[in-house]
Amino acid sequence: MQPNIVFIFSDQHRACTTSLEGAAVVTPNLERMASEGIVMRNCISNAPVCTPWRAAFLTGQYPLTNGVFLNDVRLSTDIPTLGNCLKAGGYRTGYVGKWHLDGNKRAGYIPPGPRRQGWDEWAVLNCTHSYLKSRYYLNDDDQIRQWDGYDAITQTDAAVDFINKADDDSRPFALVLSWGPPHNPYRDIPDAYLDQYPVDEAEVRPNCETPNKEELSGYYAHVTALDEQLGRIQDLLEQKDLMENTVFIYTSDHGDMVGSQGEQRKQKPWDESIRVPFVIQCPGLKGEGSTLQKPINMVDLMPTLLSFAGIDIPDGVEGRDLSRLFTGGEPDGDDVALTMCITPFAEYTGLPWRGVRTSRYTYARRLDGPWLLYDNETDPYQQNNMIDQPEYAALQEELEGYLIRLLAERDDPFEPAQFYIDKWGFEVDEKGAVPYTN
User: Fold this and answer.
1) Is 183 assigned a catalytic role?
2) 146 and 81 in one domain?
3) How many C-beta atoms surround the C-beta of residue 260 within 10 A?
């Protein structure tokens, strides 16, 4: 019997901001999910910014294969995607929340058809981060609507409605629930959540020398609000006796620096930007309550979900099927995750870089040469850069070798940003961003 799929992801939630990792943030439902499932401690965002991650998730391809390495560009309708494969495989499909894959009209109507990439039931806006006045389109209605209150709550209401339809539909269902928080604006959230994190008491990471506690407290408030909604979905699946036959995942597209390393937002190679939560429950799971160290990449999600569904993985998919990792057929061995910033843009600044993350080490290089090398086991806050230090020369050479191999596999010559912008024919503004309209 094909399992149901409930895939929940938030926007900009870093792995270190959960109670699973000892942070002073309230996430009891994530803990509950972890106790009944498996935590992947090193889930790495292959391109830590919104649109490229979403395209990689749906296609199982890296950004230079699917062509989506900037925000606000449209994903091609010619590439097989998760939604299309699931729909063709007999699934009832639904998508709720932020989409950000339909180009630069962030509030534009996306009509039924190929641009919805196989998701039939639809409560979506291309992109918004106005959480208390958030808008969306419902199914085939081209008139824009507004979510009541805090959008993550009412989007979860819509997800509940979608799951409840299983009572009258025998098909397996696949739901993607895409929340906008904890992405800034950090304080666009009901006071009931903000009140749980007084500004002057906001926890500050040791690698954040000039913290903005107002931002941090709001970020933590969003995370707790989302955890509450996660619990609602958990409760529903259990009450309806669906959990035993459901692949249930929580993750995020990328993290948020929120002042760590003196940086903001994303598109950075430090863990606050690239490492995200990942917890899974699934049929046949082995190792309940365990935490695995094996690095996984976002391109691995599409082939893994298709494998769980018993659907053939299309040609051209670059991610790996990890289903056996969760059902006991594959060891928790070391591996290497590729991560990248192809074209820094908008407020994120910085320079292009490429990097690898193993279960222990982070290595990144810029166009002008090696840049960062961290031992995350002995230096979890990444405060001791070991790059070009003689005693670590062999390690640096090994990690550089991994990076060279992975870039060759992706056919990435690692050129300046304009090379890729010109190759794909994108038009960008003076900040390197695709101009968009709300």
Assistant:
1) no
2) yes
3) 25
